[in-house]
Write a structure and sequence with these properties.
- The chain is α/β, with parallel strands linked by helices and 287 residues long.
- The protein has a single domain, classed as Alpha-Beta Barrel (TIM Barrel).
- It has 12 helices and 10 strands.
- The chain has an 8-stranded parallel sheet.
- Helix 3 (36-49) packs parallel to helix 5, helix 3 (36-49) runs parallel beside helix 12 and helix 11 (251-263) crosses helix 12 (277-286).
Amino acid sequence: MSSTLILDGGLATHLEALGCDLSDDLWSAKLLIEDPGAIRQVHLDYFAAGADVATTASYQASIPGFVRRGLTSREAADLIRLSVKLAVQARDTAGHGLVAASVGPYGAYLADGSEYTGDYDLDEAGLTAWHRDRLEILANAGADLLACETIPSLAEARALATLLGELPSVRAWVSFSCRDDEHISDGTPLRECAALFAELPQVIAVGVNCTAPRHIPGLIGRIEGKPVVVYPNSGETWDAAGHRWLGLTDPVEYGEAAARWHALGAVYVGGCCRTTPEHIRQIRARV
């Protein structure tokens, strides 16, 4: 998997554009229960816009999260598998592409914003145990690879490195949320975190997601030994007090920036929060 691939954009962002209400701790994963057809449509729209990869709606889907909603563990596991099935159906309808099963961070389950700080109540051993069941479900659900994404802390990176080491036949990329052009969200240098995965052959790329675009050029240079994956957010900032996004990044400007990231060495390029099919269309036109 060494050729350039265009990733999709914000799944939740496009769901909201289609009229879905995501005001819920489960975020986009609640539609696995309420409206799975909307998720399939988002995948189709991103493929139509030029994406090579559909990232599943499992970012905030976890067995504890669904059990907290009142489902059984078996029902929760079935919904996690459904996230992959929907993306596979869209890929088959589109006639091209890959499916990446999203493995969101522990902070996504907490739904308190800690995926952008790494301020957790679990240590490395606890994080390893928390991730294990879902990772194994997704690894056997029919996706082409795993997308271990928005990782904010060194402890969680170490936990995922341990678990991926137990799955030698499963391909994955690993991407971090970063606070600036050198450090991941908990302050650890990205170079140190990326090195954890350098000797794992099943890890096909390491990089950054859900990070401001202005930090991406500097971060690309911090990754050694693996192809680079980048899919930042749109550059907008979240106003926690007002529960709204502030600012705007034009899709054309985003596409032009993506071409620069590619020129700097990013092999897999896409978008995260607040990016849309139009952002992906602009990347496709330029990369």
